Amino acid sequence: MAMRSCRYRNAEYSIAYEILNPSLCPTILFLHGWGSNKELMRRAFGKLLPGFRHLYLDLPGFGKSPNEGFLSTADYAGIVGEFLRELEIAPGIIAGHSFGGKVATLLDPDCLVLLSSAGILVPKPLSVRMKIALFKTLKPLGFGKLRGFFASADVQGMNPGMYETFKATVNEEFEGNFSKVHGKALLFWGEKDTATPLWTGERIAELIPDAKLYSMEGDHYFFLDPANAKNIAETIEKGCGGEAGSSGD
C-alpha cells in the first residue's frame, strides 16, 4: 500500500492506494462503495484482467484514507480527479460499486463500469420511515445522542462530517448525471440486490446513451462470487478494450 496527498479546494487529502501490474497500460481504476475499501475490490478483481494496470484506492473517510469533514459526491469526484493528476494517470476504464459508481459516473471515463451502482432513489421501507420519523421527533427533546440506536449499519462509528456526507449522498437525485455520460457503459447487477434493486440498473441503462446491462445471480456484492467476477472481467476485456487503449495515460 502507498499514500499520496492531493490538494482540493484548499484542503489536503491523503489517499491510500495500490497499483497492480504497474508496467502495463491501459489502466482500470476501481472505486469501492460506502463503508467499504480498496481491499474488497482487489479481492474480487486483483487476479483478473491481466492485460491492465489496476489502480485501487480508499476514498476519503474509508479504509486508510482519513476524512473529518463534509464531502458531496461531486467533491469525491474532484478529489479523485486531483489524485489521478498527481499520479499522472488517466484511466480509460473506471469501475465503481454502489456509491463508487456515482463517483465513477461524474469522472466520465471512456468506458464506465457500474457494479450495482447507487444513484436511483429507492423508496424506504415503512419500518425505516417510522424509525426516521421517531428520531426527528425525539431529537428536539434532547435525545439526539441516541443517533447510534437509530442509525443504519452503514453509519455506525462515523465522525459527524462523514455522517452528514452519508445523509446528503444517499438522498441525492442523480438521474441527470447518468444521462450526461459520454462514453460506453457496462452495467452489472445482482438479481437479488435489495440495496440497489435490479430495476434501478434498468433505469440507469435507459438513461445512459450507450449502455449494456448484465444481470447476475447474487445480491449487492454479487461481484465477489469468483464466477461472476470472471464474467465481468471478460466482458470488460471485450467491451472496453478499444476505448481504454485509445485514452492513454
Polypeptide structure, described:
It is a single chain. The chain is α/β, with parallel strands linked by helices. It folds into 2 domains: 2-121 and 173-247, Alpha/Beta hydrolase fold, catalytic domain (Rossmann fold); 122-170, no CATH class. It is built from 9 helices and 8 strands. The protein has helices at 38-45, 73-87, 99-107, 126-138, 147-150, 160-170, 175-178, 198-207, 226-247; strands at residues 2-8, 11-20, 27-31, 53-57, 93-97, 111-115, 184-190, 211-216. Strands 1-2-4-3-5-6-7-8 form an 8-stranded mixed beta sheet, sandwiched between helices. α3 (99-107) links the parallel β5 (93-97) and β6 (111-115). α2 (73-87) crosses α3 (99-107). The longest helix has 22 residues, at 226-247. The radius of gyration is 18 Å and the shape is globular. It starts with a strand and ends with a helix. Mean pLDDT is 86; it is low at 126-139 and 141-147.
Mean pLDDT, to the nearest integer, reads 86
Strand content is 15-25%
Report strand order across the widest sheet. Answer: 1-2-4-3-5-6-7-8
Could you tell me the radius of gyration in angstroms?
18 Å
By CATH, the architecture of the largest domain is named 3-Layer(aba) Sandwich
What is the helix fraction of residues, given as a range? 25-40%
Low-confidence segments, given as residue ranges, are 126-139, 141-147
What is the terminal separation in angstroms? 21 Å
Major β-sheet annotation: 8 strands, mixed
**Could you name the CATH class of the largest domain?**
Alpha Beta
Shape: globular
Q: If you consult CATH, what is the topology of the largest domain? A: Rossmann fold
Estimated structural class: alpha/beta
The CATH homologous superfamily of the largest domain is termed Alpha/Beta hydrolase fold, catalytic domain
The SSE order reads: EEEHEHEHEHHHHEHEH
- Determine the number of helices (DSSP H or I, runs of at least 4 residues): 9
Tally of distinct domains: 2
How many strand elements?
Answer: 8
